[in-house]
Sequence to fold (76 residues):
Amino acid sequence: MKTVETRIVVDSQICSGKPVIRGTRILVRNILGMIAGGYPLERILQTYPELTREDVQAALEYAADVIDEEQVLSRV
Fold:
């Protein structure tokens, strides 16, 4: 969790409040989209050379934390 807190920023003045990697305007959703699209880590880092492996890991951890907080209601 510490990695997420130090690397992910949610600020209404940056990218309309969407979560980004600190010090960049790289959206967490862009990183997740690349992973979902099958991009290997090395390709993500080539596409965004300002990112580190830890930034990509923080994006994944952030997504896991958000999903963990979601409340799902079953339909009966």
The chain has a mean pLDDT of 91. The CA atoms of residues 15 and 25 lie 7 Å apart. The domain at 2-62 is CATH 1.10.10.10 (Arc Repressor Mutant, subunit A). The longest strand covers residues 8-9.
